[in-house]
């Protein structure tokens, strides 16, 4: 009797989990698929049923988004800023995480506490102070050099992106490095490898699943970031989220919805492609907490 009740409860729990997962998948897949279908519709098709399939593939929406709305320029800016931010972040976060997690030195606990405190700082709250600080510095540099250097600068935006992502990245990588056994470092030391050789040739390759997670999460963060990009890029060099908002405002007023959804696809497509490429490694990084000996 007890066994039958246990089996029935297990079955109900399994059904509940399946229903919840299917509902979650549908709630994500349906809106994404709807945007993709809407991006290839002609404008007249939007006045019928919103769930109707497109009559054909109308790629002129993408051409209009790239040419008239300059989405190609926004896309290039986002690619450059995101790539530079990820490069700066990894160059700083990987050695810092390794040192903080594997070595004991004076100030180690203080630095770790500062890193953890940085996790609670919301970038939205410091966007205006960052802008005022750069504006003040830019005013002084402009008096000496005659040009704006810090505002409307893609490298500066990438540097700020990387700086704001450092606490989360260092915390995540440090937690992973702590799970790796010290036997590998001892073996490398016996073979004559120094600290730097051990770090680059042994420890970083072993932390590859965690590094993939860091790259994916921060790529999504940098690619979709809007407030800092809007605040620090007032003139040109604006990124895709800012360009998408400009496109949506223009196309809504013109009652031209096709290019608006085409712009949404341009923003979403790189993230979907990246997720498909690293999905297997991402699963490994989420499930593997150490190294099998």
TrEMBL record:
Q: Which UniProt keywords apply?
A: Cell membrane, Membrane, Transmembrane, Transmembrane helix, Transport
Which Gene3D superfamilies did the record assign? Answer: MetI-like
Query: What is the first-listed, main subcellular location in coarse terms?
Result: membrane
Signal peptide start-end = none
For this protein, the record's InterPro entries field holds: BP-dep_ABC_trans_perm, MetI-like, MetI-like_sf
Q: Where are the transmembrane segments?
A: 12-37, 79-101, 113-135, 155-177, 198-223, 260-278
> Where in the cell is the protein located?
Cell membrane
Record GO cellular component, one term: plasma membrane
Q: Name one GO biological process term.
A: transmembrane transport
What PROSITE patterns is this protein classified in? ABC_TM1
Topology in the lipid bilayer: Multi-pass membrane protein
Q: Which family does it belong to?
A: Belongs to the binding-protein-dependent transport system permease family.
Q: Which PANTHER family match?
A: DIACETYLCHITOBIOSE UPTAKE SYSTEM PERMEASE PROTEIN NGCG, MALTOSE TRANSPORT SYSTEM PERMEASE-RELATED
Name of the protein this chain belongs to: ABC transporter
What does UniProt list as this organism's lineage? Bacteria, Bacillati, Bacillota, Bacilli, Bacillales
């Amino acid at each position: 009797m007890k066994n039958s009740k246990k089996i029935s409860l297990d079955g109900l729990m399994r059904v509940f989990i399946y229903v919840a997962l299917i509902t979650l998948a549908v709630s994500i897949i349906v809106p994404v698929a709807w945007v993709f279908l809407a991006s290839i519709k002609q404008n007249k098709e939007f006045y019928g049923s919103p769930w109707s399939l497109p009559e054909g593939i109308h790629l002129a929406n993408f051409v209009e988004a790239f040419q008239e709305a300059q989405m190609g320029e926004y896309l290039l800016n986002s690619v450059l800023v995101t790539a530079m931010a990820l490069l700066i972040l990894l160059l700083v976060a990987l050695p810092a995480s390794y040192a903080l997690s594997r070595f004991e030195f004076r100030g180690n606990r203080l630095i770790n506490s500062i890193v953890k405190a940085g996790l609670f700082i919301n970038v939205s709250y410091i966007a205006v102070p960052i802008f005022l600080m750069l504006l003040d510095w830019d005013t002084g540099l402009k008096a000496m050099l005659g040009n704006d250097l810090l505002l409307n600068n893609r490298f500066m935006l990438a540097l700020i992106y990387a700086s704001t992502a450092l606490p989360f990245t260092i915390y995540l990588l440090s937690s992973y490095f702590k799970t790796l056994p010290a036997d590998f470092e001892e073996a490398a030391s016996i073979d004559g490898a120094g600290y730097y050789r051990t770090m680059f040739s042994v420890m970083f390759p072993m932390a590859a699943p965690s590094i993939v997670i860091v790259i994916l999460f921060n790529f999504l963060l940098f690619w979709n970031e809007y407030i800092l990009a809007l605040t620090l890029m007032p003139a040109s060099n604006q990124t895709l989220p800012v360009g998408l908002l400009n496109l949506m405002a223009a196309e809504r007023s013109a009652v031209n919805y096709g290019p608006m959804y085409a712009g949404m696809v341009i923003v979403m497509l790189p993230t979907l492609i990246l997720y498909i490429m690293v999905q297997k490694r991402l699963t490994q990084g989420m499930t593997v907490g150490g190294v099998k000996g």
